[in-house]
Amino acid sequence: FPGAFAQLTLFQKALLGRCLCPDRAMGALREWIGAALGQQETLTRTPTLDLKGAYASSSPSTSIMFVLAPGADPVSPLLQFSDHMQQELCTLSIGTPSMCSRAETVVMEAARRGRWVYLPNCHLELAWLSR
Questions:
Q1: Spans of the chain, pLDDT less than 70
Q2: Cα dihedral sign for 8, 14, 18, 21?
Q3: Which residues, other chains included, contact 55 with Cβ-Cβ below 8 Å and sequence gap of 6+?
Q4: What's 1's DSSP letter?
């Protein structure tokens, strides 16, 4: 921050940054938390995706749901893990109502054949998810 803004505390800079550049607020808040509470990894770092742990705690009748932060993309690690496990992975985005019937067909076929399905943007069709 230039000039008089240099005298602001980290918290004040985070608040000002949130007003001026909302997309940079998380970084500023992490910096403030790190300075106030110490650079403890559990407080300032985004946890890594533990696909092995999620897979170990799942079952054929239990889905694994990804709740993602903005900008997060699990596709690459998911593809690597499916290759490692020698599982075929089908990806189908159901961000539109017209894709719901297609997704249902893909999920049923995958269940019959023991394949995995990744449905990004399924939160856009909550009514379909409840079926």
A1: 1, 39-47, 70
A2: positive
A3: 64, 81, 85
A4: -
